[in-house]
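Give me C-alpha coordinates for this 184-residue protein.
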Amino acid sequence: MVPASGSGPPEVLLLAGQIASGKTALATALTEQTACGVIRVREALQEVLGGAEWDRQRLQREGAALDQRSGGRWLLEYLQDRVRAGGCWVVDAGRTRRQVEPILEALTGSRLVYLRAHESTRRRRYASAQSIDAVKRSVSFDEAMNHPTEQEAATLAAMAHLVVDADDLSPAELGTEVRNWIGW
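Here you go.
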Protein backbone atom coordinates (compact mmCIF):
# COMPACT_ATOMS: atom_id res chain seq x y z
CA MET A 1 0.00 0.00 0.00
CA VAL A 2 1.31 3.45 -0.86
CA PRO A 3 0.54 6.55 1.20
CA ALA A 4 -2.20 8.78 -0.14
CA SER A 5 -0.83 11.29 -2.62
CA GLY A 6 -0.17 14.66 -1.11
CA SER A 7 0.26 13.20 2.36
CA GLY A 8 3.98 14.03 2.32
CA PRO A 9 6.78 12.26 4.08
CA PRO A 10 5.85 10.71 7.43
CA GLU A 11 7.06 12.18 10.68
CA VAL A 12 6.98 8.70 12.24
CA LEU A 13 8.14 5.53 10.55
CA LEU A 14 7.24 2.38 12.47
CA LEU A 15 9.33 -0.69 11.70
CA ALA A 16 7.90 -4.15 12.26
CA GLY A 17 8.84 -7.71 11.48
CA GLN A 18 9.77 -10.94 13.16
CA ILE A 19 12.94 -11.38 15.21
CA ALA A 20 16.14 -10.69 13.25
CA SER A 21 14.35 -9.52 10.11
CA GLY A 22 16.62 -6.46 9.96
CA LYS A 23 14.61 -3.83 11.87
CA THR A 24 17.44 -2.52 14.05
CA ALA A 25 19.91 -2.50 11.16
CA LEU A 26 17.39 -0.55 9.05
CA ALA A 27 16.67 1.89 11.89
CA THR A 28 20.40 2.53 12.27
CA ALA A 29 20.84 3.00 8.52
CA LEU A 30 17.92 5.43 8.34
CA THR A 31 19.24 7.54 11.20
CA GLU A 32 22.66 7.63 9.52
CA GLN A 33 21.12 8.61 6.17
CA THR A 34 18.62 11.19 7.48
CA ALA A 35 18.19 13.70 10.28
CA CYS A 36 15.64 11.42 11.98
CA GLY A 37 15.90 10.25 15.55
CA VAL A 38 15.36 6.67 16.61
CA ILE A 39 13.14 5.30 19.34
CA ARG A 40 14.11 1.80 20.40
CA VAL A 41 11.01 0.16 21.88
CA ARG A 42 13.14 -2.09 24.08
CA GLU A 43 14.70 0.99 25.72
CA ALA A 44 11.35 2.83 25.88
CA LEU A 45 9.77 -0.15 27.63
CA GLN A 46 12.56 -0.28 30.19
CA GLU A 47 12.31 3.50 30.72
CA VAL A 48 8.53 3.41 31.18
CA LEU A 49 8.68 0.44 33.56
CA GLY A 50 11.87 1.47 35.34
CA GLY A 51 13.74 -1.70 34.45
CA ALA A 52 17.27 -2.18 33.24
CA GLU A 53 19.38 -5.09 32.08
CA TRP A 54 16.31 -7.27 31.56
CA ASP A 55 16.55 -10.51 29.61
CA ARG A 56 14.26 -11.20 26.64
CA GLN A 57 11.80 -13.28 28.65
CA ARG A 58 11.30 -10.48 31.16
CA LEU A 59 11.03 -7.86 28.42
CA GLN A 60 8.40 -9.97 26.67
CA ARG A 61 6.48 -10.66 29.89
CA GLU A 62 6.57 -7.06 31.17
CA GLY A 63 5.84 -5.66 27.70
CA ALA A 64 2.81 -7.92 27.26
CA ALA A 65 1.50 -6.89 30.69
CA LEU A 66 1.98 -3.19 29.89
CA ASP A 67 0.26 -3.64 26.51
CA GLN A 68 -2.65 -5.31 28.32
CA ARG A 69 -2.95 -2.58 30.98
CA SER A 70 -2.65 0.33 28.54
CA GLY A 71 -4.34 -1.18 25.51
CA GLY A 72 -0.95 -0.74 23.81
CA ARG A 73 -1.24 3.05 24.07
CA TRP A 74 1.89 3.35 26.22
CA LEU A 75 4.03 3.47 23.07
CA LEU A 76 1.86 6.17 21.48
CA GLU A 77 2.12 8.26 24.66
CA TYR A 78 5.89 7.78 24.75
CA LEU A 79 6.16 8.70 21.07
CA GLN A 80 3.89 11.76 21.25
CA ASP A 81 6.30 13.53 23.58
CA ARG A 82 9.07 13.18 20.99
CA VAL A 83 6.88 14.07 18.00
CA ARG A 84 5.79 17.30 19.69
CA ALA A 85 9.46 18.29 19.83
CA GLY A 86 9.54 18.05 16.01
CA GLY A 87 11.56 16.21 13.41
CA CYS A 88 11.09 12.74 12.08
CA TRP A 89 11.33 9.53 14.06
CA VAL A 90 12.06 5.88 13.33
CA VAL A 91 10.47 3.44 15.78
CA ASP A 92 12.38 0.17 16.23
CA ALA A 93 9.98 -1.67 16.48
CA GLY A 94 6.24 -2.06 16.73
CA ARG A 95 5.56 -5.58 17.99
CA THR A 96 1.79 -5.84 18.45
CA ARG A 97 -1.42 -4.50 16.95
CA ARG A 98 -2.17 -2.91 20.30
CA GLN A 99 0.98 -0.81 19.95
CA VAL A 100 0.77 -0.06 16.22
CA GLU A 101 -2.92 0.72 15.66
CA PRO A 102 -3.13 3.68 18.11
CA ILE A 103 -0.03 5.25 16.54
CA LEU A 104 -1.32 4.91 12.99
CA GLU A 105 -4.70 6.30 14.04
CA ALA A 106 -3.48 9.19 16.21
CA LEU A 107 -0.41 10.31 14.26
CA THR A 108 -1.55 10.96 10.71
CA GLY A 109 2.08 11.45 9.70
CA SER A 110 2.98 7.84 10.48
CA ARG A 111 3.69 4.85 8.26
CA LEU A 112 4.33 1.17 8.98
CA VAL A 113 7.10 -0.69 7.17
CA TYR A 114 7.25 -4.44 7.63
CA LEU A 115 10.48 -6.34 7.01
CA ARG A 116 10.19 -9.92 5.87
CA ALA A 117 13.09 -12.41 5.89
CA HIS A 118 13.30 -16.18 5.60
CA GLU A 119 13.65 -18.15 8.81
CA SER A 120 17.15 -19.34 7.84
CA THR A 121 18.28 -15.72 7.40
CA ARG A 122 16.73 -14.70 10.70
CA ARG A 123 18.32 -17.64 12.55
CA ARG A 124 21.74 -16.69 11.17
CA ARG A 125 21.30 -13.02 12.06
CA TYR A 126 20.05 -13.87 15.55
CA ALA A 127 23.01 -16.16 16.22
CA SER A 128 25.38 -13.46 15.04
CA ALA A 129 23.72 -10.80 17.21
CA GLN A 130 23.89 -12.98 20.32
CA SER A 131 27.62 -12.30 20.56
CA ILE A 132 26.98 -8.57 21.15
CA ASP A 133 23.43 -8.43 22.56
CA ALA A 134 22.83 -9.74 26.08
CA VAL A 135 19.06 -9.78 25.55
CA LYS A 136 19.41 -12.06 22.52
CA ARG A 137 21.95 -14.17 24.41
CA SER A 138 19.40 -14.71 27.18
CA VAL A 139 17.10 -16.92 25.08
CA SER A 140 17.36 -19.11 22.01
CA PHE A 141 15.84 -18.14 18.69
CA ASP A 142 13.21 -20.89 19.01
CA GLU A 143 12.25 -19.84 22.56
CA ALA A 144 11.93 -16.21 21.49
CA MET A 145 9.83 -17.09 18.44
CA ASN A 146 7.42 -19.15 20.55
CA HIS A 147 6.35 -16.15 22.62
CA PRO A 148 2.87 -14.81 21.67
CA THR A 149 4.26 -11.29 21.11
CA GLU A 150 6.70 -12.60 18.51
CA GLN A 151 4.01 -14.67 16.84
CA GLU A 152 1.77 -11.60 16.68
CA ALA A 153 4.54 -9.55 15.08
CA ALA A 154 4.10 -11.64 11.93
CA THR A 155 0.49 -10.45 11.61
CA LEU A 156 1.55 -6.81 11.25
CA ALA A 157 2.50 -7.38 7.60
CA ALA A 158 -1.20 -7.15 6.73
CA MET A 159 -1.35 -3.62 8.21
CA ALA A 160 1.86 -2.35 6.63
CA HIS A 161 2.04 0.48 4.13
CA LEU A 162 5.15 -1.18 2.70
CA VAL A 163 6.47 -4.76 2.97
CA VAL A 164 10.13 -5.24 2.11
CA ASP A 165 11.93 -8.53 1.55
CA ALA A 166 15.09 -8.02 3.60
CA ASP A 167 16.99 -11.24 2.87
CA ASP A 168 19.35 -10.01 0.18
CA LEU A 169 19.61 -6.28 0.92
CA SER A 170 22.24 -4.64 3.08
CA PRO A 171 21.02 -2.20 5.74
CA ALA A 172 22.17 0.72 3.55
CA GLU A 173 20.25 -0.67 0.56
CA LEU A 174 17.16 -1.17 2.74
CA GLY A 175 17.53 2.39 3.99
CA THR A 176 17.74 3.76 0.46
CA GLU A 177 14.70 1.75 -0.67
CA VAL A 178 12.61 2.89 2.28
CA ARG A 179 13.78 6.53 2.06
CA ASN A 180 12.88 6.65 -1.63
CA TRP A 181 9.45 5.20 -0.94
CA ILE A 182 8.59 7.63 1.86
CA GLY A 183 10.22 10.71 0.39
CA TRP A 184 12.91 11.35 3.01
